Amino acid sequence: EAGVTQFPSHSVIEKGQTVTLRCDPISGHDNLYWYRRVMGKEIKFLLHFVKESKQDESGMPNNRFLAERTGGTYSTLKVQPAELEDSGVYFCASSPFPGQGMGISYNEQFFGPGTRLTVL
Amino acid sequence: GDSVTQMEGPVTLSEEAFLTINCTYTATGYPSLFWYVQYPGEGLQLLLKATKADDKGSNKGFEATYRKETTSFHLEKGSVQVSDSAVYFCALSGRGSYIPTFGRGTSLIVHP
What we know:
The complex is a heterodimer of chains A (120) and B (112).
Chain A (H helix, E strand, L loop, with lengths): L4 E3 L2 E4 L5 E6 L6 E7 L5 E8 L2 E4 L8 E4 L6 E5 L8 E8 L14 E2 L3 E5 L1
Parallel strand pairs in A: 2-11
Antiparallel strand pairs in A: 1-3, 3-8, 4-5, 4-9, 5-6, 7-8, 9-10, 9-11
Chain B lengths: L2 E4 L4 E4 L4 E3 L1 E4 L5 E7 L5 E7 L5 E4 L2 E4 L9 E3 L8 E8 L7 E2 L3 E6 L1
Parallel strand pairs in B: 2-12
Antiparallel strand pairs in B: 1-4, 3-9, 5-6, 5-10, 7-8, 8-9, 10-11, 10-12
């Protein structure tokens, strides 16, 4: 079974440009998550989709970030316009279990390899 | 809020050496604790977990014990291999939460 895939693996852009990151979750996983790790720091949660709906987007840093998951399959994360502080590794994860409110305290998430974004 | 502190790296060891990566946490209540590993070019993988005090998680020769009294979850392995070279993340998940809180990660380099 294919794991979570992310594209591109690396992206180098100029400040002010737009970049779109893509995540393909494991087939059949309703839950999809985006995280970011700024170099040397913690991995931080950005948002969570259940199918095509945004369940929790409390971690999105500002309105320059737009995430979509049309059709409930793959997801994209667009940064427009990119700033220097957006540099980091963006991870995507998916899981098959129900999300919040279903009485499950933890569900295992399967992570992709990440996209390394460098904004110059 | 919840937080995880783990030792800074890189940790550099020779093959067959003993490994300890320290992890302490701050959380309300009784969280579940995890170690994730990221091998070069791959995604994070769940290495082991413990869901209550005094539980010991173990996998691939790695162990960690949930110590409530010291709020710690140190990762240990008796004899590391070159293939263990990776970045290790300590994490916690509070009750009712499906989003882990991660530490900063510790890079492990094992030389032959």
